[in-house]
Amino acid sequence: MDSIPQPIGGFERAVNRFKSSVPKALSDQFAKDTNTLSSLQDAIRSIQKEQGEGGSLRNMPRLSKFVEAMSQLGQVIEVFVNANDFVCFIWGPMKFLLGIAKTHLDTFDKLLNIYSQIGDTIPGLLEYKSTFETRPTLMIVLHDYYSDILRFHELALKVFTRPRWKDLVSAVWKTFESSFGPIIQSLQSRRELLESEKLSASLSDIQTILHGINQIQQQQASIMYEEANEKHRLRIARIKEKLKAPDYFMDQEISTENRKGAEAGQWITANPIFQAWNDKISHGHSVLYLNGIPGAGKTTLVSSIVERLLHSINPGVNLASYSVAYFYYKHGNIDKNTHNASLRAILEQLIDQDTLSSQELLREVLSQAEVNVRSTKSLEALTLRALEQRQLSFLVLDGLDECAIGEAEATIRWLLSLINEKLDPNSSRLRVIVSGQRNGVLDHFLSSQRTISLESSEHVDDIREYCRHQCARIKTKFNISSALEESIITKVMEAAKGMFLYARVVLENLLHQTRLSGLKREIKADVFPAGINFAYERVVSRVIHDASQAEREDAERVLSLIITAKRDLKWTEIQSFFCIDPGNGLVEYDDKLLLDAKQLCGSLVDRHSLEYSDSKKPCVIRIVHETARGYLIQRGIIQESLENARMLSFCARYLASSAFQITPKSNTVTRFATQGYYSLLDYTVQYWYDHLEALAATNVAVGDVLEDPVKQTKDFLARYTPRHDLKKVDFSVLDLQQLLAKIPQDSHDRAAFLDIENRTSWIRQEIENLSGLTEDEKRITTELYGVSVEYKCHKPWCSRFADGFATFV
Predict the structure, then answer these.
(1) Domains of the chain: total
(2) Which residue, among 495, 486, 497, has the nearest Cα to 525 in the 3D structure?
(3) Does the keyword section mention Repeat (predicted)?
(4) pTM above the 0.85 mark?
(5) Nearby residues of 650 by Cβ (< 8 Å), 6 or more positions away
(6) Domain-ending residue, one of 424, 455, 486
(7) Is the domain of 370 the same as that of 466?
(8) Where would you tag: which of 145, 513, 648, 717 has the fewest CB atoms within 10 A of its CB?
């Protein structure tokens, strides 16, 4: 026997779904008793009067069929439930939408047309009232009708509740209108069911019919959703190519990995100041200044905040969701230490998270020349536009104290201009976190903002928990007593003084000891480090001074590469620097390092796995902290100018080698590719110029150090373009400046000037088509190229030039 569906159940499910798709304030507004048919009719008459007096009267009778159909729906369901509890979610949104759209006549007309179409598809339900009363099993038909109308209003509200919907609606109307197609067809199918002779069928047969109707609607909606997402992905790809934003995702991934446990940083969510900043209901803008001493763990804490914000985004519910964008500034990294770089990263994230506004912003981006769209003025304007499209946006900026001179001030001034002048808090609220050291600049501009300092007891507890975790590993490795374990925790906590970095460096150094006697020596009072520089000194003593000559030389070279490189280096790239001989165009595979970076350099470096979860996963090697970089340079362990000159020399010789001749034959490319020779193509093509600029900016004396890289650069440029007249250039600092002046500064223009794209694209195509490799060749290419990347952008100025789209083979 067929079971009778509960009359109220289907209506409640539809209402609950609708409520979850809109902000609570709006759902509460719709639920009010005042949202009746009478109040809607009053609103319609008011709009008619207003438009009539203004000479812009529209054909409002187009609403009559929809209003009548919904009125009859309410009368029919009144037999089973309290209709007022449910029809208010029809009259309320309708009144709201008409009230918003009335001032934009073209859109208002289109909205009236859609209501008219829906009204045409719904039969006179009162004709079937007696049928519904005698056959309550047919209540599911009314459930579906009601659900479809709420779904229509949900889609409409996603556009019309946005802060700048008038600017947006013209760009997205076709997509917006097409999303109603499945709903219209579903309503039509239900009408055909009611008008047919199938109402006498059993409940199970009717349920089967309705299930088929709903399934078709879901399939159509799914197809449209995928098509919209695919168009969005294509738009984002074009926008990314224009913006050339630095890699922000990897910084978040690495910082998250550094937390060494999900519990780290949770204390901040209970902090009243943070809770007030994070309150998504409260009105107005808000800035939170997060500060602490160098190495306190600000970046690690920021990563936990970003992770929580990103996890709380619901991409399927545009009204209830919000935008989250973040950026990690990096000292000395030319791609990540400027206001302009952060704008490009923020703008890319804001557009990527919003399928609707991406259409409008793509048109704006494509209308500008590539150089113009990346100007700071243009980026600020576009970012403001993107922020205005959302009701709430979170920006999290870490390490502003690591910016180049003047850049932190430019960023702060721009943020404050948004909050104080440009962004209307009534329509688009902005929440900002700025994290950095108290260096005077940040304090000056942010003194009046909410502040959290990493000197709290909760932060100290985080450090203590980390110490316990690491000391448990030390206890297991060396089989020490619990008393000694507690003694080490106490020593580290007393010396750390709130510095997470100190605890990491010291405890990792203890873990790297190979004998119990070594551990005991390191914790003696006269040896145990009293501060971070002393902690670095203990690590340097172990990995350089006390190491064998071979290990010392390899450690110093790895550190030199990491410190001198203009971006993070993958471990495969570091291996390639050891193996490739650009002077002879050879790969000496026997020069591959057999120890990894952590074994060679200890806690001076961090090894970060990226993206994948199996043994082939790529990893990036980073210096553990900027203070470690400063220590190594100040102590003369790494001579930055000398190493930069060596790096430039390598890049120039590498790109001038026979593997990069103008039109290399396929077998030539294959020969070099199977050796792993092209594993440094990505880095050298993108960053040789940056090393030349860095060398020109130093006061290196004329001599062998300067002469070699300049000679090599001259030869490289002469091979890549016949337009350079370098014959008269002498080797001096002045001549180096002259050499630099001949080369375009913009990466796009520079690539065209040197015709470097044609060479790299030809080589890339040959590499992508490699096949029939021997086992030895597969092993070599895997260890020097890393995870296979089949498709990379051939444009050297593109962010996808180096990373591409990874696929496993």
Answers:
(1) 4
(2) 495
(3) yes
(4) no
(5) 577, 582, 684
(6) 455
(7) no
(8) 513
